[in-house]
Amino acid sequence: MTPEETVDYNIKVAWHAISRMYNTQAAKHDITTSIGFVLLNIDQENGTPATKIAPLLGLETRSLTRILRSMEEKGLIYKQADTQDKRSVRIFLTEEGLRGKEISRQTVRHFNLKVREKIPQSELNVFFKVVGQITGMIEGKTLYDDFKPKPLRSESPA
């Protein structure tokens, strides 16, 4: 099986192309794709608990900490102690963060509209179904339950 025939290769190649495209657009506004996705996931009125953002984006906490620090330095967000739970920190958008969120929203919408112009809904429905099934298999953690690697063939002496 060649890499081009594997499911994971095609998903990875597609995501890298999308990510590069988003990063090109984001760079025009001094942000990154990661920052754009974080901005999109922060509640404009109530802020969002910092602990809720990483799981929404599939990020490790360490990665999110670096991104949030960068966003704070750029003046996109500010942190505030939660009024209900003083141990928790909520992330809020600044005016600049709101502008970045709107740019990110428009960028994602534009991409999706362009894809929908070219790819029929019936094909997208199949795509969403298949991706959902793959995700379910992975999240179900049963994908490798019956996996037993075959022993390597021992090479014969020369």
UniProtKB/TrEMBL annotation:
Molecular function terms from GO: DNA binding; DNA-binding transcription factor activity
InterPro entries given in the database record: HTH_MarR-typ (IPR000835), Tscrpt_reg_MarR-type_CS (IPR023187), WH-like_DNA-bd_sf (IPR036388), WH_DNA-bd_sf (IPR036390)
Keywords associated with the record: DNA-binding, Transcription, Transcription regulation
SUPFAM superfamilies registered for this protein in UniProt: Winged helix' DNA-binding domain (SSF46785)
Domain HTH marR-type, residue spans: 1-136
PANTHER family to which the protein is assigned, alphabetical: TRANSCRIPTIONAL REGULATOR, MARR, TRANSCRIPTIONAL REPRESSOR OF EMRAB OPERON
Organism from which the protein derives: Hymenobacter gelipurpurascens
Protein name: DNA-binding transcriptional regulator, MarR family
